[in-house]
Amino acid sequence: MTKEKHSPGKAAEKEPTARTTKEKKRGQEKKRKSNSLEHDEAKKNKVKKEEDEYEDKKEESEKKAKQAEEEADKWKWWEEGKHAENGQKWRSLEHKGPLFPPEYEPLPSSVSFLYNGTPVILRPATEEVATFYAKMLDHEFTTKEVFQNNFFTDWKEVMTETERQLISDLSQCDFSNIHKYFVEKTEEKRNMTKEEKQVLKEEANKLTEEYGYCLLDGHREKIGNFRVEPPGLFRGRGEHPKMGKLKKRVQPEDVIINCSKDVKIPEPPPGHRWKKVQHDNTVTWLASWVENIHGHIKYIMLNPSSKLKGEKDWQKYETARKLKLSVDSIRSEYQSAWTSCEMKQRQYGVALYFIDKLALRAGNEKDDDTADTVGCCSLRVEHINLHRHLDSLDYVVEFDFLGKDSIRYYNKVPVEKQVYKNLKLFMNSKNPDDDLFDRISTTYLNKKLNEAMPGLTAKVFRTFNASTTLQEQLNQLTTDDMTLPEKILAYNRANRAVAILCNHQRAAPKTFEKSMQLLQEKIKKKQEEVEKAKKELKQAKKEHKQLPSEVSKKLVQKMEKTVKRLLEQLKKLQLLETDRNENKVIALGTSKLNYLDPRISVACKKGGVETGFPL
DNA sequence: CAGGGGACTTGCAACTAGAATC
DNA sequence: GATTCTAGTTGCAAGTCCCCTG
Predict the structure, then answer these.
(1) A55 in any annotated domain
(2) Where are the alpha helices (DSSP H) in A136-244?
(3) Do A388 and A504 belong to one domain?
(4) Rounded Cα distance, A176 and A174, in Å
(5) A398 contacts: CB under 8 Å, gap ≥ 6
């Protein structure tokens, strides 16, 4: 409350920056607002309430006012980042705790699980796990042996002794009735009337309203994930050794609540208690629990639209901008490391060169029980091939490895002769599965980077290079006299260049082939039309030549126009085809969300270009 | 100085709602 | 007006990086 009094001036100062970072990612925020007048109303009331309370406060004693001043000073420090120095992230935090998924609802007795062809009644806990598998029946996962084995092992653990005795072979299990039941259920849901859907929507809104927001330093902030993750089967990415394992149901007894001391502590669900309630303001999370697959901690945190996340995001781009100023000296420093007499330094020089030039990730070491993926520092000899000459280029490095999320990175890059020589040296007398950079680690790399520029780490290069590329591409691709569609295309192309740099890929859309075929048919038709029109034009010209008249002349002109128009349409379709093909496996979202400095896109938007940034 | 835990960011896939098309 | 397509949103897995411990 005290802050309310003193923040206006500060807020005004901060406004432009906070706006851009905060709202960068969130069209949804804007949309939600326009969708939900109720919410607007609630927000207004909230503000009003705060104002009222503030008025009350104002009437209180002098002493309190003085305290408020002091509070305000603290606030100022926070604004200037001094708060962060002692690690404090907030002064007050109040919320309702996470929302738990509904209890398991047993299947109707008409839906039976079959073992060896005969119906078997499972106890609810066993049945629940069976439904997890049944729901995924038409997913590729269930055809994988690792998935099946992991599932079956974990499923058996849930079974009673009798069930376990009976069900000893997954291939004898028939989940198809259960699968069918859920398919029908989704179908039913789809066919609901508008009114029924509306009711459901309102119920969901109510929950979001109640659990989806918290009060941080007196401000109502949206929570990113206020729901506890429901139980299910773990779906790793790539060849994950743990795929299919049972992700257990999280109980309130597993959950740690983090909030301020002096506020209403969230209520655990009836009959339950929290694992712990703590009041740690050096962290930003509201609740946490340990997930059972890897033993990692999961958190309930704020939405990116919140001030806390927005500030951090802003800082990230500021660091990237700072790197721009010192990147030249850092580059010459790592280049000189290529000829160092110390192997470690050479490896450092080449690794950082890759991170800078190719926007590779740092590549931390990983646990064995995850998919085998690598980044720069964890590259192995088998992941690169050296070519003295390739495709009329000299000193080419061919990369082929699986990166984050098991996305393949394949690239052929010409490099400096000294880099090439160094790589040969690093690979010398090593096995294919040996580390390419065996003398360095991400910790070492980041330590060196931090010495070169405070706050600099490997990942900053990705942000820096992404934003730089966007700006460069925009400069290259745009001119002032372009039409709006051309500008938009240019922006998308620039965005795509960034996505390619960062290797942001997606699976080709399921309907891709189909819609592409459709498009190709359209193109073919158009081509035929063009041919036909051309023929007619030729004929018309011929007739005009033989027997010139006003009518024949007009016909020629008309046909010429038609041909021109059709050719334009054809070209447009062909362009669309190229565009779609280029975008087939490229994902633009990630770079838009995490890498491109919003300020660049804001500048585009000012020029009238719809960038897809919800500003 | 390795190894592991903790906190936070990044990234793909699945889902969903709204626009486009028939 | 129903159906299909597409873009935006959500869910949660998988990274990065920092800190602590021994």
Answers:
(1) yes
(2) 145-158, 161-166, 176-190, 194-211
(3) no
(4) 6
(5) A384, A385, A386, A387, A390, A411, A412
Residue A611: per-residue pLDDT: 59
What is the CATH number for A343? 3.90.15.10
Q: How far apart are CA A68 and CA A76, in angstroms?
A: 12
- DSSP character at residue A209: H
Q: Tell me, yes or no, whether A263 and A199 share the same domain.
A: yes
Residue A229 CB in 7 A reach of strand C: yes
A128 and A64, same structural domain?
Answer: no
Determine the structural domain holding residue A440 and report its residue range.
Answer: 309-456
Q: What span, in angstroms and rounded, lies between the C-alpha atoms of A239 and A145?
A: 11
pLDDT of amino acid A85:
54
Residues A263, A139 share a domain: yes
In a domain, A313, yes or no: yes
**Residue numbers in A 425-444, CB below 7 Å of strand C:** 442-443
Domain closes at, from A276, A303, A330: A303
Question: Quick check: A457 CB within 7 A of strand C?
Answer: yes
Residue A35 approaches strand B within 7 Å at CB: yes
Report, in ranges, which bases of strand C sit under 7 Å from a protein C-beta: 5-19
CB A202 within 8 A of CB A39: no
pLDDT value of position A186: 86
Residues of chain A where predicted confidence (pLDDT) is lower than 70? 1-85, 485, 602, 604-615
Q: Is the CB of A3 under 7 A from strand C?
A: no
Cα separation values, A413 from A225, A381, A500, A503, Å: 41, 16, 14, 14
| Confidence at residue A282, expressed as pLDDT on a 0 to 100 scale | 94
DSSP for A394-438, written as a single string = EEEEEEEEE-GGG-EEEEEEE--HHHHHHHHHHHTT--TTSBSST
pLDDT at residue A267, as a whole number: 95
φ, ψ of residue A568 in degrees (nearest 5) = -65, -45
Examine the domain organization and report whether A192 and A262 are in the same domain.
yes
Which residues, 6+ apart, have CB-to-CB distance to A572 below 8 Å?
none
Query: Is A11 strand, coil or helix?
Result: helix
Do β-strands A287-290 and A246-247 pair in parallel, antiparallel, or remain unpaired?
Answer: unpaired
Q: Give the model's pLDDT for residue A22.
A: 29
Question: Residue A192 has what pLDDT?
Answer: 80
Has residue A462 been placed in a domain?
A: no
Does residue A296 share a domain with residue A157?
A: yes
Asked if residue A464 is part of any domain, the answer here is: no
Q: What confidence score (pLDDT) does residue A32 get?
A: 32
**Residue A276: CATH number of its domain:** 2.170.11.10
Residue A51 region, left (φ>0) first, then alpha (ψ -120 to 50), else beta? alpha
Amino acid at A422: N
- DSSP H helical ranges for A218-365: 307-337, 343-358
**Tokens matching residue A248:** 């257990």
Q: Tell me the nt nearest to A522, Cα to C1'.
A: B21
Do A84 and A158 fall into the same domain? no
Looking at the structure of chain A, the number of domains it has is 4
H/E segment holding residue A222: strand A219-222
Q: Does the CB of A269 fall within 7 Å of any strand C atom?
A: no
Identify whether residues A283 and A405 lie together within a single domain. no
List protein-proximal bases of chain B (any atom < 7 A from a CB). 2, 5-14, 17-18
Task: Choose the final residue of a domain: A271, A303, A335.
Answer: A303
Contacts for A189-194: CB closer than 8 Å, 24+ residues apart = none
Nearest to A16 by CA among A603, A611, A474: A603
